[in-house]
Amino acid sequence: MANVIDMLKCKCPNCKKGKMYSKLGNLLLFKAPKMNALCKECNFKFEKEPGFFFGAMFVSYALVAAEMIASVVLFKFLLGFSYINVVIIAITTAILLSTINFRVSRSIWVYMFYSGD
Ligand SMILES: [Zn+2]
Predict the structure, then answer these.
(1) Dihedrals φ, ψ of 55, to 5°?
(2) Is residue 10 part of a domain?
(3) In a domain, 117, yes or no
(4) Do residues 56 and 106 lie in contact, with contact meaning Cβ atoms separated by under 8 Å?
(5) Which residue range is the domain that position 53 belongs to?
(6) Has residue 46 got a pLDDT over 80?
(7) Could you report the per-residue pLDDT of 11-41, keeping only the tens digit for each?
(8) Which residues keep their CB under 5 angstroms from ion ligand 1?
(9) How many angstroms does the Cα of residue 30 sit away from the middle of ligand 1?
(10) What is the Å distance from ligand 1's center to 79 Cα?
(11) What pLDDT is stored for residue 117 in this prediction?
């Protein structure tokens, strides 16, 4: 469970102290999060090989899908909003969470392939 929290906080999988990102990114300023190449605490290399984070895209799709399903369930089935409103809310949610999705999907990817060496 501690691992999941470290993963969501985008901490280094090796030492759990260093941060994966030097900049968190800002949706309103169109700034993407900036990732550190190495962990500042233990020199763990986040990008194992060039293109390593290509697969994180699929994690990101899964996160977006889960968030959209969650907002549809909440607003349509629990609160009874109309379909058009639910679609607008679901899309807005995906956009608002996009920088978080970007960070967390890469973090999940790094943790998935971390073997503890
Ligand atoms: Zn580290």
Answers:
(1) -65, -25
(2) yes
(3) no
(4) yes
(5) 2-112
(6) yes
(7) 999 999 999 999 988 888 888 899 999 999 9
(8) 12, 14-15, 18, 39, 41-42, 44
(9) 28
(10) 43
(11) 59
